[in-house]
Amino acid sequence: MGGIRGYLVGVGLAGVVGTAREVSLRRYRAFAARDPRVLIGVCPEGDWGVGELVALMAARCGVSDDPLCVSGQDVIDPERTVAALDAFGERVGAVAQRGGSVLLGTGHPDRLLGFYAGLADALSAVGCTVLTPAQGRCVDITTRFGLRTCHLDYVGGVGVVRECGGERAGCATPVHSHSPLPVRVALGAAAEEGGGLPDLVIGDHGWVCGAGQLGVEAIGLADTDDPALFVGEAEGAVSVVVPLDDGVRSDYYLPLTRYVLNRACLSQ
Fold this sequence. Notes:
The chain has 268 residues and is of the alpha/beta class. It has one domain. 41% of the residues lie in helices and 21% in strands. The protein contains ten helices and eleven strands. The strands form two sheets. Strands 3, 4, 5, 6, 7, 8, 9, 10 and 11 form a nine-stranded mixed sheet that branches. Strands 1-2 form a two-stranded antiparallel ribbon. Helix 4 (50-60) crosses helix 9 (227-234) and helix 5 crosses helix 10 (254-263). The longest helix is centred in the N-terminal third of the chain and has 20 residues, at 78-97. The model is unreliable at 166-170 (pLDDT under 50). This is Phosphatase.
């Protein structure tokens, strides 16, 4: 297996991935129970039980559809990842062709910031407007540890949240987040500032689900323990979801930026 497929498997982005089956099943149960921490902005129309979620994730990602498979590592079919990357690139190319506006954001700043920043740079270079609304705005995010007050910030044109902690927004390290609140705040500010909503939102976690649920076209990346994005895609709220391991080294995602830009007929 060579080319992009071989690369995905070789670095653990697809094939046998780091996400444990037990973790994925726990998240599927929480989604079926409509836990908002796992819904991350999606309001499902269908009656998604655990069995339906396992079948969906098997179809979209390639994980095992065997209900007796309850342990071990999840598996992502690299063919499905490549097909989704192609569709992802086509959507990026479509907005680039018309010089549209984009909003990018990540809940995985330690892993995925470079991937999105490369897209933001390339889109800006061809005349797209990379939006950065509500910069510095406070966002109260509920976590299992309680309420966490964060600042919305942008790094390389990519939205992130930073914990306040008594520091200026630019001082605190960007943190991991699944919340859809940052994108809701950003989209609300974009509308208030008169620039209108973006033509496309690119990201992960709540950035994709929150935008898609509000009717804004959204595309993104998701691991096998993030069923909300795939449910959103299945129900039409999300345009494209790329299945891959979202927890590997940050530099492993950079070749995917180049691949997407090539599919979009752009260059960095």
